[in-house]
Fold:
Amino acid sequence: MNHSFASDNNSGVCIEVMAAMAQVNIGHEVGYGADPYTKQAIQIFKDRFGADTEVFFVFNGTGANVLSLSCLTDSYHAVLCTEAAHINEDECGAPEKFTGSKLWDFFAPDAKLNPDMLQYTLANAGDEHRVQPKMISITQSTEFGTLYSVDEIKALADFAHSHDMYLHLDGARIVNAAVSLGLDFKAFTKDAGVDVVSFGGTKNGMMYGEAVLFFNPELAKRAKFFRKQGMQLASKMRYISAQFTAYFENDTWHKNASHANAMAQKLATKIKAIEGPVLYHPVQANGVFVQLPDAVIAKLREHHFFYIFDEKNRVARFMCSYDTPESEVERLAKDIEQAFNSLT
Structure:
């Protein structure tokens, strides 16, 4: 397959991560996370987020989200999220299956929640006939490529905590958000009041694996049991851990995410200069969302692989990756322009 703009999951593994996996592929080590490589990776997260951070490595993003929600909800609870949230649209009902709780989704044109939007969910607190809101789940960067500011996250955390709820952050693309915001991870997670984070790297150069971070050890008491029960406990965990160590060493994550974001900005700038296409969401991370006519979509699909993210409004999503060549951005922009010119 040629270079793909369909998903940053389609990219390969960056050389730093691949090398690290090869380096730990020597001899025997104790399984299930009792190896020195896992201890080293956990310490890296503690150094960045605080010594009281509890870290649990899992295989994938769905597993990370399910583990995060499972530990902090019961079957009569509700998790508040946007309609576009990955837990709501793209996880095949796994959060509801494994937690038993209900996803209560909200329409948000920018894929961002705010306290005013959620206020009415409190009307039936204590009513045994209704599910009880227990967790707010947000995504950073969002499924529409938009970003929450620190103040917006703090407002949601304050709202959650004042009503006996928790705040979860799905960070599948947390590194792209950190680069765009110019902040360290802690500033818009733990310091902003987030309780638990799904920290991803697969979309930015890792092979597989995520980390679930609890910022209060009390909230993590059930995590090791739910991780095992949910089939997310890796026996040869060193291969996940080594990836994260390489990811943070020499700021590989920052280099990778910076390139992906820069390519998205370059593509957006070129699209703005073309008469016809409409940027549907602000380009704040590594995704570019463009409203296109069906004829243009068909023409582009002759040479490019991408997804229609919004069928109703015919919005195409072009995801840039850590390894997206500038020449491919140029080629895509040129093909968009030519496709629109062919309409006249």
Remarks:
- The chain has a mean pLDDT of 97.
- Residues 7 and 319 are 5 Å apart (CA to CA).
- The radius of gyration is 21 Å.
